[in-house]
Amino acid sequence: IRQKALIDAPGAYEDILKLEGKKLTRGDRKTARGRDNVLRYIDDGEPVFKGLKVIEVASVLAGPSVGLFFAEHGAEVIKIENKASKGDVTRSWKLPSESQNTSTSAYFASVNFGKQFLSLNLKDEGDLKRCYALIKEADLFIANFKHGSAEKLGLSFGQLKQINPQLIYGEINGFGTESDRVAYDLILQAETGFMS
Question: How much is the pLDDT for 89?
């Protein structure tokens, strides 16, 4: 089950598959142990969200973390990435110690485990129609857009409810629905005085 789940996330965990024979650091052991526990849970019983279809149009950390929660509990999570920008920006956020021969960073892999990936340009009419076709069959939509972006892309709550009236729409942002500010982790840590 471990290898099957890792293969289901193409390119995300090449390094974990190479752990045999490598002297593991404490972080490596903790990462591998956590993933094994999740997979063991999924293998021991019926996944809680089996049969649930989730469309994730989110990047960086907050939105993808929600998608990860559903993927770990058996949902089919399809992450739609921006074709024009070559996907989620965190794919390239590598530490100097990470292999430059892998296609994704540990940061990206840590919140995108077990998802399917689809690269679309949502400003392109054909790609937007493909997205709408997926949304029509989905149960849940997850996004973390900047203020006004959902409407511009045709992916606001009101617009998607016309396509799928049963759709659950989840949107997360750091400064409320009326602010243009982005809320990266470091910004929030600095503004609250808890910089780590």
Answer: 86
Contacts of 135 (CB under 8 A, 6+ apart): 55, 141, 160, 163, 164, 167
Pairing between β-strand 116-120 and β-strand 168-171 as defined by DSSP bridges: unpaired
| Residue pair 82/117 in contact by the 8 Å Cβ criterion | no
Residue that is written with structure tokens 């993933």 in the block: 35
The residue length of the chain stands at: 196
- pLDDT exceeds 50 at position 69: yes
Can you tell me the distance from the alpha carbon of 160 to that of 168, in angstroms, rounded to the nearest whole number? 10
* Between 103 and 160, the higher pLDDT residue: 160
Which tokens in the block code for residue 17?
């598959």
**Residue 118 pLDDT greater than 70, yes or no:** yes
For 57, phi and psi rounded to 5 degrees?
-120, 75
Side by side, the strands of the sheet bearing 140-143 are: 116-120, 76-82, 53-57, 140-143, 168-171
Kindly indicate the confidence band of residue 27, based on its pLDDT and cuts at 50, 70 and 90: low
Cα dihedral: 26, 92, 1, 29 (round 10): 0
CA–CA dist 56, 120 (Å, integer): 12
Instruction: Tell me the C-alpha distance between 154 and 124, whole Å.
Output: 11
pLDDT attached to residue 73? 93
Q: What is the spatial distance between Cα 78 and Cα 141, in angstroms, rounded to a whole number?
A: 10
Distance CA 144, CA 150 (A): 9
